[in-house]
Amino acid sequence: MFELKGKTALVTGAGSGIGAAIAQLFARAGAFVAVIDKQAEHAHTVASSLKDENLSASDHCLDVTHPESCQAMVEAFQNTHGKIDLLVNNAGIGHVGTLMETTGEDLDRMYATNVRGVFNMAKAVLPDMIGAGKGNIINLASIGGVVAVRDRLAYCTTKFAVVGLTKCIALDHASEGIRCNCICPGRVETPFVKARLAEYPDPEAAYREMASTQALGRMAQPEEIASAALYLASDASAFITGTDFVIDGGWSAGK
Ligand code: NAI
Description:
By secondary structure, the chain is an alpha/beta fold. The protein is built from 8 helices and 7 strands; from the N terminus they run βαβαβαβαβαβαααβ.
């Protein structure tokens, strides 16, 4: 429905879940996709499956918490492809706990990936985007970046920060042709959530409980988040910047 022909896209955390779905949808829409993940084999598997479909992709092992590595990866990609049109900051990690159950180290670790990772990658791509007079950054925040979620203090803290980062980048760089938006999903059935469910004595009951926070009574599929990313990446959303696009099955609509 939305085209990305001739565009290049970097997608972090694309070895799994929502990132893998975004990489696939962007490639099918015509983009060259850099599948980036700290787990090299996962990035390789996703990029290979895209190439098997005759789509354009490369895989990159990168830990987004390291600013120099982000810079080096972006420079190498820029040298090969000449431009970066799109950056999707999707890599993220979770943590369960209240303030009393969260250590300072937990918070720093969450911050390093969920906030510094977004900051590092945005800082690496922005100079070239500004030079080109156009660019589009999409960040994966969370419904936990819009409303508080019980027992998720560190996670919500980082995701509220991602919403703030998004709005500041959008405001500061709009006049230079840059758009920046974030997506705030409710619960999405990915390895991230499945691993959490597996920790419960009755995973099916835990699924029903987690799904019940959403008015639609189920979790989203990764493709349902990827389609929003494709819309934000495409020219169909040309007038949208600085927004937090909530896709939560009605979670935040009220009780
Ligand atoms: P996932 O765990 O299935 O995939 C995340 C990927 O990011 C993994 O492949 C992991 O190796 C990679 N990654 C983690 N840290 C990294 C780092 N430092 N550098 C590079 N890659 C790294 O997760 P999922 O569920 O697909 O989540 C993706 C994003 O969406 C995250 O930012 C998450 O917070 C957000 N989100 C997820 C929701 C859900 O219910 N699954 C709900 C709301 C937001």
